[in-house]
Write a structure and sequence with these properties.
381 residues, mainly alpha, two-stranded antiparallel ribbon, 13 helices, 4 strands, 65% helix
């Protein structure tokens, strides 16, 4: 089962990155053979979970099948690409949800494996994109292998996802109380403070360094939204900061949408402008900060005069390479840039830049849906 899943996805990636149709046909043939096998295995999930290796194999196969759907994505008229891909992907996520719930119910206190932990993370992201409420049994990250800083972030992100779900529910109602929306804004403000507390616990080695680039002319440019970038000792450290900035961006966007609900079209109201100020500034800063992590995380930044000291914030010479982004680095930022590409309150010019960067990552990892991000309407969160 896993061999078939791996081969179908590998062939799909090759077909997409090399534009090789015969390989894509063979990938499709293997994928459809795999579908029947996995469906039968999920139908016997209670038997499967008694053996940890079988459970991991089932989860890995489902994950690879979901990836196959996004790799082999092809745009269709009259439907947003992200909605289409998710519809094709939903059955796999629902299958993984069923497997994970059954494991939790029958596992006793067995520790979660790496695949169980990452399957749950994927399901939480999927629920955000699909605007689904998170079931109670999935909320406790410690039961699924989350520890330390990862567990702290997990708890905050769970609350952000749930807050977004409540916002969407409120937006669909015709009658609601202003006090309810104001209470949600307070929750968002609390989450922003707790995100700051989370990042304050980062190890010293994870520190970021800001650099002001020379005037390259007009902005934005490829891999650069503005003449500010952050450097890190390792790209993985930058990915942690990107998660922080993306979470602040999503949370402050929720506040902005709630304020818009409260005040409607009263944009000229001095009170409205005052209330918009803080979340608007927070959102803009988070957007620019997320963008500033991109060059270093993707390994495309070169300081040709070196960084002489930790306090050196200016660069007299800097190069953004034109080399293709390595897939293992591209995967560090796919989720954060996806969020930026679909948050509805962002400036169109900035969002177009994020979509362009996401399309570049799609070409690197062979993801059809990501490649399409800059080519047309891509849906909204």
């Amino acid at each position: 089962m896993v061999d078939l899943a791996l081969s179908s996805m590998a062939l799909a990636v090759f077909s997409q990155t090399h534009r090789h149709k015969p390989t894509g046909i063979e990938a499709s043939r293997r994928y459809h053979s795999l579908l029947g096998i996995v469906q039968a295995r999920i139908g016997q999930v209670e038997t499967c979970i008694t053996n940890q290796a079988d459970l991991d194999a089932c989860l890995l196969a489902i994950f690879l099948m979901a990836r196959y759907e996004t790799i082999m994505f092809w745009p269709t008229e009259n439907i947003s690409p992200i909605a289409l891909a998710l519809m094709q992907d939903w059955s796999h996520h629902d299958g993984a949800m069923a497997v994970l719930k059954t494991w939790l119910q029958h596992s006793g206190r067995k520790p979660a494996t790496f695949l169980i932990k990452h399957t749950r993370r994927g399901l939480i992201k999927s629920s955000l994109l699909r605007n689904l409420p998170l079931p109670d049994w999935i909320l406790d990250g410690s039961r699924f292998g989350e520890v330390g800083l990862e567990l702290s972030y997990d708890r905050l992100f769970i609350r952000i996802v749930n807050l977004h779900y409540v916002l969407k529910s409120l937006e669909m109602q015709t009658e609601w109380r202003i006090s309810d929306a104001e209470a949600l804004i307070e929750r968002a403000n609390c989450l922003l403070e707790q995100l700051d507390d989370w990042v304050a616990d980062f190890p010293k080695a994870w520190s970021l360094q800001r650099h002001d680039l020379p005037d390259f002319g007009s902005w934005p440019r490829k891999h650069l939204l503005s003449p500010i970038l952050y450097t890190f000792e390792k790209p993985g450290y930058g990915a942690a900061w990107a998660l922080y900035f993306a979470a602040r961006m999503l949370t402050s966007s929720i506040s902005l949408r709630l304020l818009d609900l409260i005040h409607g079209d009263s944009l000229s109201s001095p009170l409205h402008k005052h209330q918009w100020l803080d979340p608007s500034q927070c959102f803009q800063q988070a957007t620019e900060n997320l963008a500033a992590t991109v060059p270093c995380c993707l390994g495309v930044f070169r300081a040709s005069d070196g960084l002489s000291s930790a306090d050196d914030q200016s660069l007299t010479k800097a190069t953004i390479t034109e080399e293709p982004v390595q897939p293992y680095l591209a995967n560090l930022l796919v989720w954060c840039l996806t969020l930026a590409a679909i948050i509805p309150v962002m400036d169109q010019r900035q969002q177009a830049w994020f979509k362009s960067e996401l399309a570049e990552l799609g070409r690197s990892i062979g993801s059809g849906i990501l490649e399409y991000a800059a080519s047309g309407p891509w849906g909204s969160l």
